[in-house]
# Entry
Amino acid sequence: MKKRAFTLIELLIIITIIAILVGVAIPYYQDYIRQAKISKAQHELDIIKEALIKHDTMEELPYKHNSLRYLLGNYLQDLPRDPWDRDYHIDWVKGMVWSDGADSNSIYDDIRVEYKPPLTLQKATWLDLDNNTHISRNDIIRLQFSRCLYADEIGHPVDQLVISNASPAAGGSDLWVTEDVDAAFIAGIVASFPASSSEILLILPTPATEYPFYPGSSSIRVSPKNTRLTDWVDMADGSGKRKANGSDDTDDVDWIRIKGR
# Structure
């Protein structure tokens, strides 16, 4: 019995069906590959994040390199390239690592991971620069934050900081101190912002009293009225830089005691 061959029309129908199935399957496959690459990049960025956190915990100074290769050895066993065969990047001022994603010419598909915690005042220390055990002119109160503070090109804030000891905090204030800190003394304080720094140096004026504040007792925090103390990262909604914890009329931050060194 002779086998019946496919007719030309039947072959065309089969080819058409196969083409439709391939056309449907390819986008799903491409999406699968894209998502797999994104997941791989996120996983590797999380490993780099943990290495940076460990470095900043173990070392005396935080990581301040524009390359990740200085983590190799003690904190990273190897430094992979991203799934698109490009280097991972770090911006230590913003506290962020990232991949350029599939399109290196666009920021919209970048995969970003922050390794620094939100901007928070962590420590306040009175530095007795003349070692006379008294609060004196040009002594310093050093405020240490969890990440770099935003400053302009010359390393100073756009506006001078305002410190309040009123209760509640005065409108327009950036730092809030307890009521035992002398108000006239506060008015003479000059704030210095080292460029690309996580510190503010409060340079003290000549005190009118022996104890314009009390080291170990007097305390300071970010003012709930703060608008100037921000980090370098832009808000997702385009409303400006992210403000320090304790801003926006919130009371969910701790007071930090001003300790002597």
In short: The chain has a mean pLDDT of 88.
